[in-house]
Amino acid sequence: MSPLWFILAFSTTIISALVNILDSHFMSRRMPGTRAYILICGIFILPAGGIMLISFPLPAGIGPGPIWAVIVSAILMSGASVLILQAMKNVDVARVAPLTATSPAFVAVLATVFLGEDLGLRQWLGIGAVVAGAAVISSRWDAAGGGGINRKALFMLLGVAVLAAAASVINKYGLEYMSFWTYAGIDFLVASILILAFCLRREVLSSIRTMANRRQAINLTVLNQVIATTATIMAFWTIQLGPVSLASTVFNAKPLLVFAASAAISRIAPGFMIVEKLSRRSTAIKAAGTAAVVGGLAAIFI
């Protein structure tokens, strides 16, 4: 892979981690509900998608297959995003992110079967380490050191991982036929239409009008969506330049950053978002999971 691929992949991961932290803050501290937050985001990406598609139209002679690929991918990722935001209302983001990071395992299998991508033993071991580390980080540990698994959150977020994996493989197919700018434009348009169809309701608008510090909350949400849109475009570009299985693995090293950031935020600004209190033993276990993620990435790229 080229140096540009590495820069894009890791930059996308860092930006996405920031977006996750801000999403957690908005969902747990500012927004009256999931649909209200999604609606504000959808209103922003609608014109953004239109501008991209006008500036970078579909190539001449393209068939319906790639266009349907974008549409299906957008539907899958929209569903995944809703599940993630719903989870962030009540669950520490440091547990949400790792569970969704299991998607490289599903991507690797799907990409090998449907795209013919060939991964060596070391790369498979690296992907396995990333997934295992994510599972350790996501385990629920309380302040006394006791452990357990929230089954509802587990299965919901594993469902997110499967949806994201399928969308990533479909993205790789569609990006063979058009630029990442065009692909992103269609993706944003489809997502915004879905959002407006399901969230543009009188009660949702009423909840937005009556929420505290409305103008500030909306402005910050739009800023976060600008950052998220940038990350999405960069992700499409990364997938277009290299193997989707490896791109997905780098993207899903995000729990490493989210874990570190949430730990820092819990000390600096305890009320910023939901953060679980951990014992030293629990923190050490999560740190071991983080090390597995880093080691997995090293196995893939060194």
From TrEMBL:
Keyword Transmembrane belongs to the record: yes
Keyword Membrane: yes
Keywords: Membrane, Transmembrane, Transmembrane helix
Domain EamA: 5-138, 152-272
Signal peptide segment: none
Pfam families: EamA
GO cellular component, one term: membrane
Bilayer-spanning residue ranges: 6-24, 36-55, 67-85, 97-115, 121-141, 153-174, 180-200, 221-244, 256-275
PANTHER family tied to this protein: ACYL-MALONYL CONDENSING ENZYME-RELATED, SOLUTE CARRIER FAMILY 35 MEMBER G2-RELATED
Family: Belongs to the EamA transporter family.
Protein name: Putative membrane protein
Annotated source species: Dehalogenimonas alkenigignens
Taxonomic placement: Bacteria, Bacillati, Chloroflexota, Dehalococcoidia, Dehalococcoidales
